[in-house]
Amino acid sequence: MTLDRSLKVKAGAIKARNVLTRAERIAQLQRLEKFNEDESILGMPKVRVMKVSLKKKKKVKKADDDKK
After folding, report:
1. Who has the most CB within 10 Å: 2, 7, 16, 56?
2. Residue 29, class by beta-carbon neighbours within 10 Å (0-12 exposed, 13-18 middle, 19+ buried)?
3. What would you measure as the largest C-alpha separation in the chain, in angstroms?
4. Is the pTM of this model over 0.70?
């Protein structure tokens, strides 16, 4: 079954998720050096999900334009 065009989201993969998969949580905890392989995975500490916001780029004038 196909998905109707009106239901498709143009920026589907860009939106930040608020839940990480277990593999993503483990990878982030390893980067923070808070993951211990000997401990149970049921009591893993929480990991904050950083939301990425894209800012618009400012237009930079060329040095040649300023001299004229």
Report:
1. 16
2. middle
3. 68
4. no
